[in-house]
Amino acid sequence: MPSHVITDWDPEDTVAWAAGNDKIARRNLIWSTIAEHVGFSIWSIWSVMVLFMPESVYGFTSGDKFLLAATATLAGGGLRIPYSMATATFGGRNWTIFSALVLLIPTVSMMVLLAHPGLPLWPYLVCAVLTGLGGGNFAASMTNVNAFYPNRLKGWALAVNAGGGNLGVPLIQLVGLAVLATAGNRQPHWVCAIYLVFLAVTGIGAALFMDNLANHKVDLTAMRSILPAADTWIIALLYIGTFGSFIGYSFAFGQVLQISFVGSGQSPAQASLHAAQIAFLGPLLGSVARIIGGRVADRIGGGRVTLAAFGGMFAAAGLLAGVSFLNDHRSGPTSSATMVGFVIGFVALFIVSGIGNGSVYKMIPSVFEARSHALGLSESERQHWSRAMSGALIGFAGAIGAFGGVGINLALRQSYLSSGSATAAFWIFLAGYVVAAGLTWLRYVRSPILTVQPARAALAPA
């Protein structure tokens, strides 16, 4: 049997890279991305399942469903820090196999729960916690890819990995749409059954085609070392604004549309189908935009791209707040113009938050690569320090950013409970984007801490 352990890996060795290491890295990138992709699907599966759970059958209100989404998001965010260290502890290949197959548990559990309407909310909340295991896959995959790629290609590789993983959200929503269109809103087990197959294929593929890096070690000192740094907390806050928005809206968009369609006079079954026909577009475009954001950030700097992204998010949130406010002050069912405004505003938010996701993650290796040159270390020590710090912040920022999705769903839940609309939540989101844009401008645009070094693309200004 071929060995899946690589004992000497130096991605900065350009000769070895051209001689075949690039193909090894690409193979591991592909399967790591697939595992992350399926993990995102299971993590966000509640965005689909709520469309199969009419209140008249299951007894759960829209507030209960937002709580399920918030619970899954919270669990996924909390698991990202330990998951970011797991690939170095157990090996990227080994952990990818485990992290794919363990998701069989919540998927089967969900099939059982949804087959028995009338159960209380708490077993659904437990299942939501278990689906959060899929959210942890992101940090493990990003840390693994970070170890395989040289600094000059990290922006592209991390953006492809993250963007490909994010595509798991619209894919499961498309699967849900197909089931809703062909079998109706009472056959959710078909969605779960399809993903049982995907999870098995992913685990087998990881076992056959991925590798463990022997020199990729856990560095708990790195995690402790990044905490006092101001950039750690600023980047984490920016990622709350970008990724927190992406994942939060991914969970909430379908339900917001469903509530609005019911408000326009449609039956729950019609509203679910029409919501599913639209909801996947936002996460799909946002996932593709993440790859573009990483590529553009490699060229012109993550700070400038991130600032532009927050400007776009401010405008989109303003549109949603305005449309929702006007709808609150008119009588009768929700109008077609209001629905069009909601769709345009949300899709725009997905696109610009996706761009921001890619640009913020580009800033992580750039910050530590630049700092490493001032440490007086040998070249190998400097590269090790840069990779260790970057990996630690990737896990930390990923976890903190996911918590932004919790806030999105809790804010929407409270807004609907308090006033019957999402207007108050949209105003809160708008204010948050103003703060994030200000931080970006002050720290990374007005007085950039990184300078361009043409010979090293990874050192573009952040």
From TrEMBL:
Localization annotation: Membrane
UniProt membrane topology term: Multi-pass membrane protein
Superkingdom: Bacteria
A cellular-component GO term for this protein: membrane
GO MF assignments: nitrate transmembrane transporter activity
UniProt entry keywords in alphabetical sequence: Membrane, Transmembrane, Transmembrane helix
Gene3D superfamilies: MFS general substrate transporter like domains (1.20.1250.20)
Entry's transmembrane regions: 29-54, 66-83, 95-115, 121-143, 155-181, 187-209, 230-251, 271-293, 305-326, 338-361, 392-412, 424-442
Main location: membrane
InterPro entries attached to this UniProt entry: MFS (IPR011701), MFS_trans_sf (IPR036259), NO3_transporter (IPR044772)
Protein family (similarity comment): Belongs to the major facilitator superfamily. Nitrate/nitrite porter (TC 2.A.1.8) family.
Cross-referenced PANTHER family: HIGH-AFFINITY NITRATE TRANSPORTER 2.3
Protein name: MFS transporter
